[in-house]
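For reference, the entry.
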Amino acid sequence: MSVESFYDILGVTETATQDEIKKAYKKKAVEHHPDKGGNEDVFKKVSEAYDTLGDEGKRRNYDSQKNNPFGQTGFNPFDDFFNGAFGQQFNQRRAVPDKIIDVTIGAIESFLSRDKSITYSRRTECPTCHGQGGDRINCNQCAGQGFTTTRVGNGMFIQMVRQTCGSCQGQGFTYRTRCGGCNGECTIASLETINVKLPHGVDDGQFFKLQGSGDYINGMYGNLVMRVRIVAENNFEKAGNDLVYNAFFNLEELQKDSFNIPHPDGNIEIKVPTEFDTSKPLRVKSKGFNTNGVGDLFIKLFVKFKK
């Protein structure tokens, strides 16, 4: 079974110039970008292909390995060991972490399942250099690998130690010139606003994920994870599936026969109990949240006045 090469992914020939490869990448990246309705898996393949072919040193190594499965220096029995076990920690630098933000939601917002506008800061691809950071050159210290390998010991006790390259900090490249727009950061800070529909009964500590709405790292966008924080709103609180209202009374209000609760579904008139006991909340059945069963409304009584 043939394996699709990086050249095939970018749609260029093996004799293509670096400028042709760069133009092909930009065209493919725009076409398959997740934020523009493209396929995220294809976008990742395009980014990975350009990460190798867009760097002359990595491209030479790739061409050598493509033509000779064992590379230029012959078979290395330690390669599989590193790539399978210890090599994973170096490949993880390609992974894009999720961006986690806290979203504050009021108890009434949770009950009414409102639309909510959320503004947050994120790192987006630099439009000047298209996320490249500038004019890259292959790192001479690690030959574009991002790590160096050192043999320790002798005889039968030989250990191969792989370390992140200190010259390029594991990137595999340095800059001949840095981008004037981002100064080599590859990203710029921006504010993003999204509109979400809150589900009824959304609770404290819940998480919601939006694909591709996180930070731009290593040529691709990560996901945005929203962590819910429920807060009191207009004297209402959320307690599991129950809705809690804190009712405050002065001396004049205590003399009345009833009082109103501004319930999200509409005002509820409550009769003032004959025995006004602030240690026991009043309960109105089935006026809580309708998630995993129907909760109740609890009314906590507080007396507050000045002498």
